[in-house]
Design a protein that fits this description.
flat; about 140 residues; mainly alpha; 5 helices
Length: about 140
């Protein structure tokens, strides 16, 4: 092995020599670590500047703050039941928007479908067990 291969872990053609796979998986190089530390050091200043611009009425700053603080996918909806009629009633009374009602109804349907599939699987397993026991006779 040459000194170059020993020092860098690479062959003269630039590929890694056996046993020298480069950086440890998941490790960050020095530039990435230094850049991350520099950005983290600026975060309080950036938040202060953003708050200042928001108070001045900068709509871009306001939008950015809202995008990062409001829950993704809309607000949380509390219903006492998962009955589809309750969803329709909430939409009819203006408690939730039609779009929220659609998404909520789809979620309830998906959960119901999953429960139906679990029940069908249980029944199939029960039938297979019954058929297996009858075949042994």
């Amino acid at each position: 092995m040459t000194n170059e291969t020993t020092n860098t872990g690479r062959r003269p053609n630039g590929t890694f020599a056996p046993g020298s796979g480069g950086r440890v998986r998941g490790s960050k190089n020095k530039v990435s670590r230094d850049t991350l530390a520099a950005v983290q050091g600026l975060s309080s200043e950036a938040v202060s500047k953003l708050a200042e611009r928001m108070r001045a009425g900068d709509m871009g700053a306001i939008r950015l703050i809202l995008e990062y603080t409001l829950p993704k996918g809309g607000r949380t909806i509390d219903l006492e039941t998962n009955d589809p009629n309750a969803i329709a009633d909430a939409a009819a009374h203006g408690e939730i928007s039609p779009d929220e009602a659609t998404r909520l109804a789809q979620a309830v349907k998906t959960v119901g479908d999953a429960a139906d599939l679990r029940e069908l699987k249980r029944q199939v397993e029960e039938l297979e067990l019954l058929i297996s026991s009858l075949a042994k006779r």
